[in-house]
Fold:
Amino acid sequence: MANERTGKPGWDSAPKVRSDAKLKGLPEEDQETLWLLMHPTDGTDGRNVEEMLVHIQEEHGFTVSVSTFYEWLSYYRQQQRMAKAAERALQAKLQLAADPSITPEDLERVAQTIFTAEMLEAGDVKGYVALAKVGLARKSLEHDARRIALLEAKAKRLDELEAKAREIKSGGGLSPETLEVIEKQLKLL
Structure:
């Protein structure tokens, strides 16, 4: 359902932040700084929770409890995941829009890739296993369909050969020994 004010779908809008939520109310740059202090990208060890609480008090002039800080960490991680998923979806949309020959199977493959990446990034093992099972089941069905098509083609060829053998037999064109060899060969198919 679209938001009346923004026109965006409900799943695409950011959750409302309470006015008394001090950490969530910080500017995005400050929240990103807090995140990077705990999760540096240069391979160094990040700060621990106690150091972060001191940093918040010194840099922003307010205190928060450990539980509030962990709640903010969860919130910010979710915001990052949503932003990355939106970016992936936008990239997929742009790629798909550029190619008018996209099939429903192509769309399914792209969606599977995006969801799998999301599950891996989130550390959602159960979700990843469920997606993997769906993928394996789909491959198994495709394999079975190919096997059935091959068996049907083989049966059609066998019917053609049997019809040809009956035609030859009724016309008297082959000796009984040759016919016996042909029938044995047909049984091998």
